[in-house]
Amino acid sequence: MSHEAQEVEVKYRVKDLAALEAALSRRGVTLSTPVRQDDQAYAQAGWSHGHSKIGVVFARLRTQEGRHLFTVKKPLDNEMACLEHETEVADREQMHQAVIAMGFRPTVRVVKTRRTGTLNGTSICVDEIEHLGVFLELERTARAGESGVVVQQRLDSFALSLGVDLERITDTYDSLVYAATTSA
């Protein structure tokens, strides 16, 4: 395997936010103040919702607190175990035009308010997503040679250990927003 970082995550629909916040607090996790993230997702030409994402490159432009981040993800084991590259860009609109010129097309816009914390190398995000509700996202970078699926199992064990009513979600936010906004 190359030296690329594999970002591995698990997501859950949160049924009781106060219970989740209390459980995280008991573990010593302090969540940040809320930050608004405005994400535009892009897919390669020829890909559409419902097709497999494995091995397909996706892009995202995120604006957060006046900064613009450009991210490219390539799902490996599943949609939430990806090779990921990210950099800050100066001009969101120019980057948007460049992404389109590279053959990508805009898919969905995901707007969320995110609070973050960390525990033992795991990134913990509590996200309130427009049109969807509240979610918990746990993320960790897999070590070289480490299976993304095994990392997901460990993250899931941690989530279950919180003792909170959570529903594991295997879709990405862009797929969930797409489903919610096209069926409405």
Automatic annotation (TrEMBL):
Transmembrane segments: none annotated. Residues 5-179 form the CYTH domain. It comes from the Bacteria. PROSITE patterns: CYTH. This is Adenylate cyclase class 2. It comes from Thermopolyspora flexuosa.
